[in-house]
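Inverse folding, one chain.
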């Protein structure tokens, strides 16, 4: 998503100036805590990456940063745990040393195989933050993202091997997940997506359904795309908050997959699908309505997103646009419209 998408510059300053200022801000905010308010992810570095890539003015980057950072605490904790906060500090120091010696791409490539089994960690924000950090090409931010994902990564329990009938399509599989989610009462520790996923992973539906998709002929990227397409359709009708993170999370996985050697992503097929199954089972009750059709073009939606103060709107529209480039279709604009007009 660049300034050229709109057929004109959004602001008077160039994309190059915005990218240069992004590096300054990521340096300045490198010690900010990765979470606030007892488990909410700090989205600032991810949003700044999107805004800079779109070529907004440096004043917009400064204004958004100043407003957003008011919510961040002065103490470091992850999930209310100061112990996890200390581990985060150790991990980011470790990754900084590695990146200094070997470079961003090499360290990210070598770290991903250990992290991909937990793409749902921190409500997908580990993988999302790393994806944006790599796009920003900022060593400190990549180290922070790897450290955050590493600390939050807790592989889900293994589901039962083919504990349910085999589903022959992603749509059928996701429908079954939704039906089971409606029937199985969920008692999470809190309303956070992370806690909802943890509660789901202890339940019977997850054990039965997480590995019940029987499409051996389809590659994992193709299955991820099918899941994202369905998630976009659901989100366009419902605005479901957890499903929003499936759209942005799957986009991030495929962005990072480009760093991996051929065949490496495929080795994580079962774990990645299990993470996506857990997310759909953990989604708040999905109340379908009609898609919002107030805008006619990507230009208008992108402009609304770049002027928005809502971090989720900015990130969702970016991911929807990125998905549009991979597999064009009206569903991505419909999802972007839902975000732009309902948040």
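Residues assigned per position:
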């Amino acid at each position: 998503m660049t300034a050229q998408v709109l057929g004109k510059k959004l602001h008077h300053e160039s994309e190059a100036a915005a990218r240069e200022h992004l590096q300054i801000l990521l340096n300045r905010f490198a010690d900010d805590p990765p979470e606030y308010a007892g488990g909410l992810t700090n989205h600032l570095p991810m949003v700044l990456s999107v805004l800079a890539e779109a070529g907004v003015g440096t004043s917009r980057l400064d204004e958004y940063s100043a407003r957003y950072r008011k919510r961040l605490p002065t103490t470091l904790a992850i999930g209310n745990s100061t112990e996890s906060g200390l581990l985060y500090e150790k991990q980011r120091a470790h990754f900084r040393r590695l990146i200094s010696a070997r470079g961003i791409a090499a360290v990210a490539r070598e770290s991903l195989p250990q992290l991909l089994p937990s793409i749902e960690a921190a409500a997908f924000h580990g993988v999302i933050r790393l994806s944006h950090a790599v796009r920003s090409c900022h060593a400190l931010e990549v180290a922070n993202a790897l450290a955050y994902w590493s600390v939050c990564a807790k592989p889900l329990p293994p589901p039962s091997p083919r504990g349910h009938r085999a589903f022959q399509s992603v749509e059928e599989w996701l429908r079954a997940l939704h039906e089971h989610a409606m029937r199985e009462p969920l008692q999470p520790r809190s309303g956070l997506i992370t806690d909802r996923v943890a509660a789901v992973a202890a339940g019977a539906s997850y054990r039965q359904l997480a590995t019940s998709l029987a499409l051996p002929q389809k590659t994992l990227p193709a299955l991820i795309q099918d899941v994202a397409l369905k998630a976009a359709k659901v989100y366009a009708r419902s605005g479901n908050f957890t499903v929003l993170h499936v759209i942005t999370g799957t986009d991030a996985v495929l962005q990072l997959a480009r760093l991996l050697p051929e065949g490496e992503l495929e080795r994580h097929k079962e774990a990645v699908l299990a993470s996506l199954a857990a997310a759909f089972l953990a989604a708040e009750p999905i109340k379908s309505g009609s898609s919002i059709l107030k805008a006619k073009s990507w230009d208008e939606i992108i402009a609304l997103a770049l002027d928005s103060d809502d971090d989720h709107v900015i990130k969702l529209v970016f991911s929807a646009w990125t998905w549009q480039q991979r597999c064009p279709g009206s569903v991505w604009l419909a999802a972007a419209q839902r975000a732009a007009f309902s948040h």
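Strands lie at 35-36, 40-41. The longest strand covers residues 35-36.
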